[in-house]
């Protein structure tokens, strides 16, 4: 192989296909068409004299040669990108950077508006996109630079992943303004009996916040009190306002809702809602990237407490 004739972009394609196991997914991650990605793979095979990936019923499987070189190629690309970015001055007012994050639907409602306001004021040419990434795929997406950061109840334990604690939070109950417990005296905190007698509406456990609500209800033996499940947290206010149902949401979200709707916040019984930790998660390969450092600083400034 003549290394001088090797296009660096071909190595990016190799790393992306190895990461995703798919030509289509790799092309999407690199903003390339499927035909362009397939062409790049063909050129790589010619350069290296190896198939690199073979088709199986489960998708593309790397050859032994590919398994040997792909991790090193990925690491070298990350180091090169980090090295080059250190020498680039970052001017948020002029930058056209496109940041990609991964937030649940609740995270999108709580974190995107303040971030968007900060960007419009300080980095008006920049863009921010929320990309759907499953929790189990988060570390790989960060490593492959498919996303730049994520915020949520996250603590992925993978090499190279950094997790900055932003704040600790707990859950509260919310109802329409006129709702009252069916038993006992109404106060600012529900008793175990009052919570156990209330019909509940929750969001389905498809993201980090959703799953932690369900786990809490299982621990309290209250799963059978769920009479309605919605797909998104955003549906809960209207459902609670139009019914006698109680819903359980993070305190931060409850404070936001109570300012905009005729809704009442109820503290949950003592020891029923342990604190959980919300983190900013990112990859160490971007530690010295000026643009990534800047957006992380904004996240810390807006949400760390």
UniProtKB/TrEMBL annotation:
Keyword Magnesium annotated: no
InterPro entries in the record: LysR-type_TF, LysR_HTH_N, LysR_subst-bd, WH-like_DNA-bd_sf, WH_DNA-bd_sf
Signal sequence residues: none
Keywords assigned by UniProt, alphabetized: DNA-binding, Transcription, Transcription regulation
All copies of domain HTH lysR-type, residue ranges: 6-63
Coiled coil: none
A GO term, aspect molecular function: DNA binding
Family, per entry: Belongs to the LysR transcriptional regulatory family.
UniProt name for this protein: LysR family transcriptional regulator
Species of the source: Hydrogenophaga borbori
């Amino acid at each position: 192989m003549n290394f001088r004739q090797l296009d660096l972009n071909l190595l990016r394609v190799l790393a992306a296909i190895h990461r995703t196991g798919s030509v289509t997914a790799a092309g999407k991650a690199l903003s390339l068409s499927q035909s362009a990605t397939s062409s790049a793979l063909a050129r790589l095979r010619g350069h290296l004299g190896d198939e690199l990936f073979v088709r199986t019923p489960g998708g593309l499987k790397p050859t032994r040669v590919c398994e040997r070189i792909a991790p090193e190629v990925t690491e070298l690309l990350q180091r090169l990108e980090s090295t080059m970015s250190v020498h680039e001055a970052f001017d948020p007012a002029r930058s056209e950077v496109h940041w990609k994050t991964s937030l649940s639907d609740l995270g999108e409602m709580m974190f995107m508006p303040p971030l968007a306001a900060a960007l419009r004021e300080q980095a008006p040419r920049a863009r921010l996109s929320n990309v759907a990434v499953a929790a189990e795929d988060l570390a790989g997406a960060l490593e492959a630079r498919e996303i730049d950061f994520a915020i949520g109840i996250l603590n992925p334990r993978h090499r190279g992943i950094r997790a900055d604690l932003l704040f600790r939070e707990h859950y509260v109950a919310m109802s329409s303004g006129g709702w009252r417990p069916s038993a006992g005296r109404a106060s600012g905190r529900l008793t175990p009996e009052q919570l156990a007698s209330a019909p509940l509406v929750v969001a389905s456990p498809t993201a980090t916040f959703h799953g932690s609500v369900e786990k809490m209800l299982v621990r309290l033996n209250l799963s059978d009190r769920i009479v309605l499940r919605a797909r998104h947290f955003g549906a809960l206010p209207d459902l609670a306002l139009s019914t006698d149902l109680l819903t359980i949401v993070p305190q931060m979200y409850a404070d936001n809702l109570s300012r905009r709707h005729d809704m009442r916040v109820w503290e949950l019984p003592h020891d029923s809602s342990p604190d959980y930790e919300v983190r900013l998660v990112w990859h160490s390969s971007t530690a010295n990237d000026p643009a990534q450092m800047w957006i992380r600083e904004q996240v810390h400034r807006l949400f760390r407490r």
